[in-house]
């Protein structure tokens, strides 16, 4: 009688351990708390394990939309100082029936973000061996940033070229006007006398009224 | 021993000292001038200090015995670099023409040297500006966080990373696939890459804006392009020294290995580096110094610029190796951490049991207890020295190693922008000299019609170069660039430099040259200059040339290709060149080199043919009306020259 009572008391944990240890539907979990948090690392103890089991129960609830999942459905074994262990999930209705691997995987995948955050860890530091992390979506830009910078540079180059060419054109125009003015004076000097007036060097020299070419007077 | 080759008619071709003095005083020449001495010095420094100082010298230094490499480098700098530099400055300042003009003046049969300089400057401009286009591409892509080369892109069905990237590394993938989109062999053109075309157009556009009116605009641009690299190098030095592992890098760079001095390759590499680093024989330096006043102290300039060039090489090497030391240490730590994690996971030991410090002891103890498990783990061997000596030169340094280091630094986009702006400025200021070496000879050879203004000529030249540069933006462009770099920019320059020395010393005459220098700077160049100009530097040039030539001719030449399908991927694969490439190599190296004797022969044939048919002598009519007519014609031509002057200065 006493043996039977003892058996009844110790059976569930023994059975649970067997379910966990030899199971094909279990996953190995590995946490690297010190790597992730350095100085602020917390110790791994029973309470943390309790949190882990409850987050997994939460994940199963969300996945299967079955509110009967409880912490007792998450069985843990092979706890090592590395902070790595195996776990299995039992069905809420039948405690000796394990939930298949694929379903557990799906539940973990969907809620990995929440599980990570509960432990202040990341995909790298909270590993479920056999469940690769989903990759984040690539950033899609409306316009590639490099095109924007290219546009700015090419715009500046175009403005520079136009400005420099305009200044050259205006310089040429001014020079042409100046040359036209000078060439008229030159022509006058050569036509009249080969050497005399060229030594005056332009506008220098006294202005003699008698030689002014005032048309009004000479016509008369 | 004053050997002087016969050179009839030299006196008629050059301006005498009195004429030069008059030109100087009256400022009657129509040649452009520097606004101030600083512009000239900055332009020459910019031309000499280029990408080679940043990515070739540090590698040579580290691979040839570190600090010991300084010895051959400095010796050859003094014996080879400074004399050649002084020679080019002096001859340009004296004859006041670009490279073609100078050689035509010295002796019409030496026109080939000028043409060879023109060809080499043109070929080098083509591919050098493509490197600047690559720098611009990275610069444009630096304005985002995270940097695009810091992580692998995800493949199409979002199951994992792109396989090519996963097998190599994100920086490799970004360089070979997203930048170059490189084909697997030089025969496969791979099509034009439109992103690169845009960058090439930007590069030529910026160059055009800076060179549009010759040194008038270049002189303003160099205030920025020549000084900014030093500012950025200093910023990187300060940043680098605060990073972990930087001092290891510097120690690795400068630790001397005096045994390397016995190796002839060290001396030859040092000589080649000095030579190429000074951008000699391109014709650009002759042009730049021809815009100086005739009494400018070119001897002092040559010494100052050489010292600045050497100092910049050493400074840049230090900065580069602080960053490389940091990267190597990061890689080493990552390698060790990976091993530690593997050990912790396998033996389920608590974290912190094995750290970087006690890794070796822990590994030893585990090896004694469970040797079979340890051997099955395939732990990586982590050696800091091997990370430090990963072949880091050329584009590999800038676009792979350095960009990787930058991704590991906090505020990466800032460092990336600074680094690529520095490379851009270094490259652009060298391009100014290259383009000068192309434009001025073209003008001297009267290739363009006289009515075309400077802006149009530089525009057309830049456009033509840009179109030719499209070779380098196709899929196989990287291999073409390496080809051009190895053959167009190496052997011909040595031949040209050798011919320059022989031409000035023995054809122009060292006596006349000495007298010119007395006139220009006030004292005769001392025994050091005499010895180096006459014997030492030409001999060194000859030695380097013979070595290079024999290496190229005897060895099987091959190129390294990025081939995702090769067995050793991601290691680059050595592939032999197809046979038709040898024709192209001959054109690249042969045409500039052979134009030196070729032009002489061509000219000789022309002279010989003209002698057979003497032109009828012009008969002068002895009458007044003819004389007056002649006088009027002369005045008219003077007037038209004056008006041209106003348009072109």
UniProtKB/TrEMBL annotation, chain A:
Major location (coarse): membrane
The keyword Cell membrane appears for this protein: yes
Chain ranges passing through the membrane: 146-166
Membrane topology designation: Single-pass type I membrane protein
Signal peptide: 1-16
Subcellular location: Cell membrane
Keyword terms of this UniProt record: Cell membrane, Glycoprotein, Membrane, Phosphoprotein, Signal, Transmembrane, Transmembrane helix
Top-rank lineage group of the source organism: Eukaryota
UniProt name for this protein: Collectrin
Native source species: Carassius auratus (Goldfish)
Gene label: cltrn
UniProtKB/TrEMBL annotation, chain B:
Keywords of this entry: Membrane, Metal-binding, Sodium, Symport, Transmembrane, Transmembrane helix, Transport
Gene Ontology process terms (BP): sodium ion transmembrane transport
Domain of life: Eukaryota
Main localization of the protein described in the UniProt heading: membrane
The keyword Metal-binding appears for this protein: yes
PROSITE patterns: NA_NEUROTRAN_SYMP_1, NA_NEUROTRAN_SYMP_2, NA_NEUROTRAN_SYMP_3
GO CC annotation: brush border membrane
Positions bound to Na(+) 2: 49
Binding site for Na(+) 1: 46, 53, 277, 309, 426, 430
Transmembrane feature ranges: 40-57, 69-91, 111-140, 191-210, 222-242, 274-291, 303-324, 414-435, 456-475, 487-510, 531-549, 580-602
Subcellular location: Membrane
GO molecular function, one term: metal ion binding
Membrane topology label: Multi-pass membrane protein
Pfam families: SNF
Family that this chain belongs to: Belongs to the sodium:neurotransmitter symporter (SNF) (TC 2.A.22) family.
Name of the protein in question: Transporter
Species the sequence originates in: Carassius auratus
Gene that specifies this protein: LOC113060199
